[in-house]
Amino acid sequence: MSVATGRCAVAERPTRAAWTVLAAMTGGLAMIMLDQTVVTVALPTMTRDLGLSASGQQWVVNAYVLAMAASVALGGRIGTRFGPVTTFRVGIWVFFLSSALCGAAPEGPAGPSWLIAARVAQGCGAALMMPVGASIVMAAFPPAVRGRAMGVYVGISQLFLALGPLLGGALTEWVTWRAVFWLNLPVGLTALWLIRRARPANPAQPALTVSVAHSLLLMAGIATTVYALQQSSAWTWTSVRTGCVLTLGLLLTAAFVLTQLRTHDPLVKLGLLRHHGFTGNVVVLLVTQFSMLGIVLFSSLYAQNLLGYGPVRAGCAALSFIVPLMAGAQLAGRWYDRSGARPPLLTGLAVATAGTLLWALTLTRVEYLANVPGMAMVGLGLGLVFSPVNTDALSRVPAVDRPQASGIVQTVRQLGGTLGVAVIGTVILSRQRVVPAAERAHAAAEAMRGGFLVAAGTFAIGLVAGALLLAGRPDPGD
Q1: How many CA atoms does the CB half-sphere of 321 hold within 13 Å?
Q2: What average pLDDT score do residues 97-103 get?
Q3: SS3 for the chain, per residue?
Q4: Overall average pLDDT of the 304-309 stretch
Q5: What is the rounded CA–CA span in Å between residue 401 and residue 299?
Q6: pTM summary value
Q7: Over the range 91-114, which residues count as b (16 or more CB within 10 Å of their CB) and which as e?
Q8: Which residues have a Cβ under 8 Å from the Cβ of 58 and sit 6 or more positions away?
Q9: Cα dihedral across residues 194, 197, 201, 203: positive or negative
Q10: Helix, strand, or coil here: 60?
Q11: Angle, nearest 10°, between helix axes 84-103 and 54-82?
């Protein structure tokens, strides 16, 4: 081996500090993802203790995801100005302090408002962590092993997203539903300690401006649009209120887009969407998160409300989804390193589409075993998608643009999740009928089938978009 070849091999080998950085970022992202789904199994118990309405149950999930979606672009901008590591540390503190407040929500009339407000604060903390975490990991690892590192980073976080119902069920039944939030405190402190040990690079651009007006416009547009979608089940789609609020949200969002296109220093660099490959990944993330979060929420409610499972048993039932997701995530990272994003992404989306259709068709049997094949297919498909799509999206842009690209990716990702909960929830609630008690489970399962069919159609849209927009391997951009 020549000297030059030897040096190249050493340069391509990750350092111990890189693995420590990966552990810290994975811990932070695991908290963020876990809190999207850990509450789903605890919702019935929360409802009894705090008096949550049906809409309030959706808001406990959606307030968190919506806050992330509305503020993650601002988090990316702050990360660029003050440094990604500094921003990540601040985000962790905000996140786990607000988690403590969630767990302290009082019983009685004030409980629902307290919990939802604390969930919004959690989302804001997560918005500081998410856009910088991926860029910190990618900066720590050489390009040749980046796919494997991001496979671990995204795969473990998606594992915790899927494990949420199981952990939430165990904590709710054996400890208290409040423990699902207190779990974040030791994880957050451990992540802070690991960052202190690894000392990753923290490049900052102090001269960069952060427009408060643009940030507020984005938050108002997203929040108003999602609020209209979620409330449409109560207001009805034909009501004047739904039309007015939805129109206002869309106008505010359009105004934000126009300001970003005209300013020389945008909060969200929309010009990155001119790259077909980057746009393809963004669309895939939007539709997969849309379908997945709605499926995870309502499958947890299905297990408890229709199958009659307790929180722990409902969480264990999710293993049919979790185990294939873990296997798919591990396979996807290596597949990406060998072949690029297109093969695992298109395969995963096709499997997820077919699995969701199968799952939807078996829901009305109200039998757990009938649902298992569909659940396993969806889990495997999503595992094949998430690692490659995140790695490929950031690899499609130059390194200097990665914080901005990460902001777009995470905004779209969280927006997809919150839209999924709102739209799929609206479809399910609008299809529910008042029927005799003997027919109630079947009628509720039929309503859920309608929501799952929407999720399957959305996966199919992502499959078509990926096939059209994703081609070739990206230039690492270093």
Answers
A1: 31
A2: 93
A3: CCHHHHHHHHHCCCCHHHHHHHHHHHHHHHHHHHHHHHHHHHHHHHHHHHCCCHHHHHHHHHHHHHHHHHHHHHHHHHHHHHCHHHHHHHHHHHHHHHHHHHHCCCCCCCHHHHHHHHHHHHHHHHHHHHHHHHHHHHHHCCHHHHHHHHHHHHHHHHHHHHHHHHHHHHHHHHCCCCHHHHCHHHHHHHHHHHHHHHCCCCCCCCCCCCCHHHHHHHHHHHHHHHHHHHHHHHHCCCCHHHHHHHHHHHHHHHHHHHHHHHCCCCCCCHHHHHCHHHHHHHHHHHHHHHHHHHHHHHHHHHHHHHCCCCHHHHHHHCHHHHHHHHHHHHHHHHHHHHHCCHHHHHHHHHHHHHHHHHHHHHHHHCCHHHHHHHHHHHHHHHHHHHHHHHHHHHHCCCHHHHHHHHHHHHHHHHHHHHHHHHHHHHHHHHHCCCCCHHHHHHHHHHHHHHHHHHHHHHHHHHHHHHHHHCCCCCCCCC
A4: 88
A5: 38
A6: 0.75
A7: bbebbbbbbebbbebeeeeebbeb
A8: 230, 421, 422, 425
A9: positive
A10: helix
A11: 160
The two tokens of residue 275 are 């790259």
DSSP string computed for 287-302: HHHHHHHHHHHHHHHI
CA distances from 381 to 323, 329, 384, 472 (A): 12, 9, 5, 21
Per-residue confidence at 171, pLDDT binned at 50, 70, 90?
confident
Token pair belonging to 52: 């949550």
- 116-128 pLDDT, tens digit per residue, is 999 999 999 998 9
Q: How confident is the model at residue 2 (pLDDT cuts 50, 70, 90)?
A: very low
Residue 10 pLDDT level (bands cut at 50, 70, 90):
very low
- The Cα 151–Cα 6 span in angstroms is 26
Residue 162: pLDDT above 70? no
Residue 478 has pLDDT above 70, yes or no: no
Token pair listed for 328: 């798919």
The arithmetic mean of pLDDT across residues 423-436, rounded, is 77
Q: Which two tokens stand for residue 333?
A: 């990272």
Task: Show Cβ contacts of residue 334 under 8 Å, excluding neighbours closer than 6 positions.
Answer: 147, 148, 151
Instruction: State how far the alpha carbon of 67 is from the alpha carbons of 222, 332, 386, in Å.
Output: 9, 30, 22
